[in-house]
Amino acid sequence: MFALQRFTIRFSLVLLLVTLIAGLLAACAYLFPNLFNHFLPFQLLRPVHTSAALFWIIGAAACCVSYLQYESNPSLNEKKGWNKAFMYLWVFTIIAVFIHYGLNQFGGREYWEFPPYLNLPLLAAWIFLIYSLFTPLNKSTPAYEWMWMTGLLFFLFTFLEQNAWQIPWFRESFRREITVQWKANGSMVGAWNQMIYGLSFFMMYKISGDRKMLHSRQTYFFYFLGLFNLMFNWGHHIYNLPNTNWMRHVAYAVSMTEWLFLLKIIRDFRKTLDTAKKLRHLVSYRFLTAAEFWVAANLILALLMSIPAFNRYSHGTHITVAHAMGTTIGINTFILLGAISYILRADLQQLKYKRIINITHKANQYFLGIFWVALIIAGWVKGYLTIEQPKMHYTQLMESVTPYIELFTFAGVGLMIGLGVIAIILLLMPFPQKTIEPTHELITAEDLQN
Question: Which end of the chain is flanked by fewer CB atoms within 10 Å, N or C?
């Protein structure tokens, strides 16, 4: 059972590598279309990149939740056959998606640009996953399990909603179809955030040993705020569609409040943690604290984007991409890498592995910062020139943006190498044969400084 779960976690890390490589190639194809259009055009690389990123986040979250649930709840073993069915179907369908891309067979809608019939095995796989993991929830259930189960169920709902366009009635009106599409994609982010935030709470509990945080009012308030968020924060995803302003403003306010509370909980966790506990789970701890920084950075950017005057220049530009990349890499990917590091008991692995991860992770922070800022500047320049100089030729406009895209590409190379090194090291690490807690004697103060 665990052998298959380990394989799917490794498969998710391979998807991260595909995301990085395809993203870099897509940036190069965007900058040098005449060179790349002959063999790897942008219109092929973009769906490969976005689908790989989507499956990396969703798949890694689901597989980590599955592994930790089965590790801590032996009673689930009677349903392990359903869990295996999920993993086989999930992996084979994703492989089929990329085979179709390679054959230039597309379909679907944004982020799900493969032939629509492949959504059926994905749907079946997710139903198998929910059945294999679901346990009765009550007052004694840890908060992270509430988050996991909520994320699993709401991903199913939003996935069905995202595929509503296949019903002819929705396609009769472009506005109706695009509203449902954007709304579903926005709510889907909230669904996988529930799973990922649940993993972060699980790690904070395991690192600190503080059982109170599993049932505290603050934790449950955050859970219900996240639940409300995934149900209603989609309003700002349909900002440019006919809608009432109060709905947009309420959606943004709810979304920002959720991040503020997550930021507060992680900061409280850091303050109450002594050095010995940090040392016992140093790798996972560093990924968590890095996510804290990017929560704060993306919170500031998202607040700016919610201001109508700023949104006039930013919407649909590289600023939107910066917000998405900061969230996808800085928050989701870092938390998932922390969870995988915890599952692998990375602090019990060879010292050289841990030191490479720590050094590379620090470099990633700088590269991601350059990557993020370059996208923001490029987006602002493009948005400003588009609005203020509408008669400017598109070629001239892009010439003004190109230097920042080149800087973004340079930082992307560094980020690809850094995250790629971490993914490869995690792929090489053997899984522990049994549950065992790392001990601080295996790590030195030098490691903490690195």
Answer: N
Nearest-CA neighbor of 158 among 58, 246, 61? 58
Tens-place pLDDT, residues 68-114: 888 878 777 788 889 899 999 999 999 999 999 989 898 888 888 89
**Half-sphere exposure of residue 143: CA atoms within 13 angstroms, side-chain side:** 27
Instruction: Give the length of the chain.
Output: 450
Counting the structural domains of the chain, the total is 1
Residues spanned by the domain of 68: 1-134
> Is 4 a member of any domain?
yes
Please state the φ and ψ torsions of residue 325, each to the nearest 5 degrees.
Answer: -70, -40
User: Residue 112 — φ and ψ, nearest 5°?
Assistant: -125, 65
Q: What is the pLDDT of residues 131-172, one digit of tens each?
A: 998 887 777 888 889 999 999 999 999 999 989 888 888 888
Is 45 a domain residue? yes
pLDDT average, residue stretch 332-342? 91
Q: How far apart are CA 321 and CA 299, in angstroms?
A: 14
Beta bridge partners of 112: 109
Residue with tokens 């049994």: 434
Alpha carbons within 13 A on the beta-carbon side of 284: 28
- How far from chain centre, in Å, is Cα 280? 26
- Its sign, for the CA torsion 82, 84, 87, 89, is negative
- Mean pLDDT for the chain? 81
What CA–CA distance (Å, rounded) separates 288 from 387?
Answer: 39
The answer to whether position 236 is within a domain reads: no
| Dihedral of the alpha carbons of 143, 200, 153, 135, in degrees to the nearest 10 | -50
The Cα–Cα gap between 81 and 283 comes to: 33
DSSP labels, 138-173: -TTS-HHHHHHHHHHHHHHHHHHHHTGGGSHHHHT-
Is residue 78 situated within a structural domain?
Answer: yes
Q: Helices 394-428 & 334-343, crossing angle to 10 degrees?
A: 10
Q: Would you state the structure tokens that stand for residue 91, as one six-digit string?
A: 């992996």
For residues 286-313, b (16+ Cβ closer than 10 Å) or e, as one string? bbbbbbbbbbebbbebbeebbeeebbeb
User: Mean of the pLDDT values across residues 4-15?
Assistant: 91
Interatomic CA distance for residues 215 and 404, integer angstroms:
47
Map residue 382 onto helix, strand or coil. Answer: helix
Shortest CA distance to 73 belongs to which of 143, 124, 136?
Answer: 136
Lookup: tokens for 29: 């194809």
Encoded tokens for 81: 């056959």
Closest CA relative to residue 280, chosen from 215, 188, 183, 209: 209
Q: How far apart are CA 361 and CA 419, in angstroms?
A: 8
